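Curious: can you check?
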Amino acid sequence: MVIGTHRLLSGDVRFADLGLIIIDEEQRFGVAHKEHLKSMRATVDVLTMTATPIPRTLHMALLGLRDISSLTTPPLDRRSIHTQVVHYDERLIRQAILRELSRDGQIFFVHNRVYDIDSQADRIAKLAPEARIAVGHGQMPPGRLGQTMLEFVNRRIDVLVCTTIIESGLDIPTANTIIIHEADRFGLAELHQLRGRVGRYKHRAFCYLLLPETRPVAPVAARRLKAIEEFSDLGAGFQIAMRDLEIRGAGNILGAAQSGHIAAVGYELYCQLLREAVSEIRGEPPAELRQVHLELGLDAFISTSYVPSQRQRMEIYRRLSRCTTCPQLRQLGADLADAYGPVPDVIQTLLDAAEIRIRAGKLGVDSIIRMDPDIIFTVRDFSAARGIFDGAAGTVRLPDDHTVHWRPPQAYREMPTLVNVLLKRLRDAGVNL
């Protein structure tokens, strides 16, 4: 067994019979690093461990390209960390430090800029002269940094003003308050890792995410801060990683990008192609999704007076296109009524047209086209679709085995009567949807 850092990736390291790779803190490794490890032997097994999976890794697990196990049970007596997003307030910072000192605890103050970290430490010293304060960052001489950390562990320092050098590997039970300065500059996974430096024992821990003093917070940063504040329960790393995936995108399965949104083909199509590829590799039968071509001359759309937002209208159309069962359509109609009020006739017609497509597709119909005075059906197997026409009012003709001409009575040809009659024929002939 070899335990090492990134040094194991060097070209001069050779393994005799590599069978298992365990990668801890996976978020610190790039795609090239992990692929290099796997290339050392074709049949190597890989186990990656992290509290906050990289979006690309999590997305691969959700698609079935990788197996995933989630541990949500915390250690005994462990309590969730109280997390709060607040404006920079010297009075609040002093209160947080004094409260921790009153219970013989210690404090991390994270300031991730080395060039002015000493001046920030001086500000903290003026706010809390009772506290013993020290500075720690990666550009300090190794001996001095090691001595500072040793003094902090031995409780000769109360407040450690530091950079993200403390992000992982520290387990100090007496440090139970962390204050992160300008928290909007940090990534979601990084914030979760930093927050994990406190609350390592049975005492209640506190995490304060300070907003910048002189500049506004970007919208994406605001979403990150809201997520880290919302998901503060023990075992919330998976939910945080899911939100990170939503905010940053899934990256490239075949490329080196571990985050980012798919712009070339669109996210929906990208996921669909991946699902189909995974199913094919597993030998699973492809999902049968018949797109019925429908031309009835319908007046069916989502009006701007009902849904003013263009983005919301597009989302409704997208959701409508994904409906494959009648209960999904009914739920969509109920959601529209709940969000925007009673569904107008023009949108109800749109929902009815979607139901016609779903039911007709289940009966083997490829297209339904209105060419007055007939409605022309193209079917794959007339015996499966026969129930649509048995007992139908008007006349039914079969020019060939795959085409049916239905001429309904004159009274049925106007909208919305034709839609209602057609729906009734399909409902009576089809399976229970």
User: Anything to note?
Assistant: Residues 6-49 form one domain. The chain has a mean pLDDT of 82.
